[in-house]
Amino acid sequence: MDVPFGLPVPVDSNSAPRRGIPLPSRWRWKTEMTVEFHMSKEIDVASLTTCHVAPDGYYIHLNIEDALGQPATLRLTSACVQQLVMTLPHLLSQALKAQHHGDGSIRAVFPLSEWRLEAAAGSKDLILSMMTPDGFEVAFSLSEPAIAQITSALSPIVKANER
Question: Structural domain boundaries of the chain?
Answer without folding.
Answer: 1-39, 45-99, 114-162
